[in-house]
């Protein structure tokens, strides 16, 4: 990257007056470099710190295997529940103007700006054994903290808004006229949704779902506070990385690389998929 | 990571306070003290009185699990003093050359205690009750000193005829979470989310005392934790760092530690 910029410097210096476009683009590249490098350097450093052999050796340790399995199952569950329960909410927000809609919309932003530790404490106070709702659940024999359900709830709380936000703009982008003319032709609301709205809005829904999944994969603060840290039950990859950092750096590095590689893979594939459609 | 954010905040605070000092005062120094989470209350007070007796010096604390602090120092975090909740983390830094061997001194001791929420939902009244099926027990992770000590206590008890060898495995089945530091164990118990936890006696001496019941662990089963303190080798404030260590070991420092439930070292 740096080499490329350097060689461009030379060519443009020798041909200063040739084109207006090239120096402008060069300036743009130069101005982009600092942030780009800053974002890339730590990731590269992380990847270079551990050898492939070391990584493979740590892959099979129960701590790593358990954390990976738990992260996969809980984040898929989080994404699934979010899509199912978030789609109607997003449709409501996109299609209907009602009093308090902006307030509701802003409230949905909150979990995204809230420090995850605050989210964890809030969840504990609401759904904990002594919590506002949790105490009733406890009377029924359900105790949420320290369970896999708590992991999913923690992830959903911080990650669901990403899907809802994307879905709202997806639905809002579907022309109302299309839906209305289908209605005139006698199609039922569910039929319209399935045949018109969904096919047109799905790229937004998909990228929203992936954002939610990605955020859920990285969830740490709310999870450790609300769900605790128990290997195989609530110790997801970010928790295992945190504990591993203190016990065995190699385990932490192995998990970090897995996390980075899968996230990159998923995000990249989805991006390609969406580009092909549009 | 939250701790690094905390460090940045401390650094900013230090900058601010540096701006506020008068030109007549001696060159302002900020002493970065990395101390075990269990020392939070005691060291905060010691820090204040140290600042009062050493004008121009600001003590900035980074409280976290000892193992995490040791890692941070090993990775080059700007620490001047390291106070650990166990000797193994101190020894790790001595081995890696971040602390000079012989400069470390034991400044306090601590012991384990079992705590339950005041309402005692698990109806736990004795150490044997920790093995009751279905209770929710929270321990510190084994990477944290107190977590390691908790396991040692269970091991010791299992060797006693009155507890039998089944004690430790049965109790460990009740563990619902291995928390990343001792204060998190305390919070989960005071909030009533866990039926019991194992912490240091120093953790329940103050604010938490009226929110928990404690069950004493007899000496022969207990683990007495030794807290070593040392100046960090590459400290830019070596003289002040040594002064702080001396202050912690002085009778003033020891009084504060005792007030917060630590066993002072034999003087």
Helix/strand layout:
The complex is a heterodimer of chains A (278) and B (267).
Chain A lengths: L1 H13 L6 H29 L2 H8 L2 H34 L5 H13 L2 H12 L6 H6 L8 H25 L3 H9 L4 H29 L3 H6 L10 H11 L1 H29 L1
Chain B lengths: L1 H19 L8 E8 L3 H14 L3 E8 L1 H9 L6 E3 L3 H9 L9 E13 L19 E4 L4 H14 L8 H7 L1 E5 L2 H9 L5 E5 L11 E5 L7 E8 L6 H12 L1 H9 L3 E2 L3
Parallel strand pairs in B: 1-2, 1-3, 5-6, 5-7
Antiparallel strand pairs in B: 3-9, 4-7, 4-8, 4-9, 4-10
Query: Over all CA atoms, what is the radius of gyration of chain B?
Result: 20 Å
Number of helices of chain B: 9
Proportion in helices of chain B: 25-40%
Compute the average pLDDT of chain B: 87
Distance between the termini of chain A: 29 Å
Structural class of chain B: alpha/beta
The shape of chain A, in one word, is globular
N/C terminus separation of chain B: 39 Å
Can you describe what's shown?
The complex is a heterodimer of chains A (278) and B (267). Chain A is mostly helical. In chain A, 81% of the residues lie in helices and 0% in strands. Chain A has helices at residues 2-14, 21-49, 52-59, 62-95, 101-113, 116-127, 134-139, 148-172, 176-184, 189-217, 221-226, 237-247, 249-277. Chain A is globular. The model of chain A is unreliable at 1-16 (pLDDT under 50). Chain B is of the alpha/beta class and 267 residues long. Helices cover 38% and strands 23% of the residues of chain B. Chain B has helices spanning 2-20, 40-53, 66-74, 87-95, 145-158, 167-173, 182-190, 238-249, 251-259; strands at residues 29-36, 57-64, 81-83, 105-117, 137-140, 175-179, 196-200, 212-216, 224-231, 263-264. In chain B, strands 1, 2, 3, 4, 5, 6, 7, 8, 9 and 10 form a ten-stranded mixed beta sheet that branches. In chain B, helix 2 runs antiparallel to helix 9 (251-259) and helix 3 (66-74) packs parallel to helix 4 (87-95). The model of chain B is unreliable at 12-25 (pLDDT under 50).
